[in-house]
Amino acid sequence: MAVSEDAHVIFEQTDTEGPNHATKCAVFVDEALSFAESHAIPLDAVAVSQGPGSYTGLRIGVSMAKGVAYGRGVPLVAVPTLELLCVPVLLYREDIPDEALFVPMIDARRMEVYAAVYDRALKPQRGVQADIVDADTYREWLDRAPVYFFGDGSAKCEGVIKHPNAHFIDDIHPLAKHMYPLAARALSKNETVDVAYFEPFYLKDFIATKPKNPLTLNVER
User: Fold this and answer.
1) In CATH terms, is domain 2-80+174-188 a member of 3.40.50.1700?
2) Sequential DSSP letters for 102-148
3) Same fold for the domain at 2-80+174-188 and the one at 82-169?
4) From CA 56, how far away is CA 133, in angstroms rounded?
5) pLDDT for res 112
6) pLDDT, tens digit (0-9, with 9 covering 90-100), for 13-39
7) What kind and span of H or E run contains 101?
């Protein structure tokens, strides 16, 4: 959770300890709003990560953002999560060549990731897909230019993708403090979403499955 003013982050709360959106999100929102109000900072818009990602996390985050935007009467901006992952790489890595391609990755399951391919201007070279990663999944792009993989899905791919043009960047997360450039760009183009009808981009439908080894409860009478 973050509050930005004039392109600077002036308040931030981050938690990376696990899937605890239900317990932390509301608290962080209250703290951010209280900070803005106590410093007389007007709320101009609300930005939220739109996905892909965790079904539960997206649902909770988007619901909270919609509630704040509606309650305060301000626009809602949806930030693509994979583009958000690219922001810290663009801001803080000065050693990346101009022709490089970015492949942000969100961990799915087994060897599957949610990923896209962008150039340095964040122009999509390939849209968002669920990829089952093997040595050849990104060969088309690796044969063309240096490719930088990052995000929590990249760690499990590092041992599989061995191309000389493959580079891996650790510790890149989709943090609220990096939303400002993308949100500001969207607002400048009047690219906001409908507060009432906007839905997260899950990429895949949520499927509830039965456990393979269900517990059996024996009750003695």
Assistant:
1) no
2) EEEEEE-STTEEEEEEE-TT--EEEEEEEEE--TTTTHHHHTTS-EE
3) yes
4) 24
5) 95
6) 887 676 666 678 889 999 999 999 999
7) strand 101-107
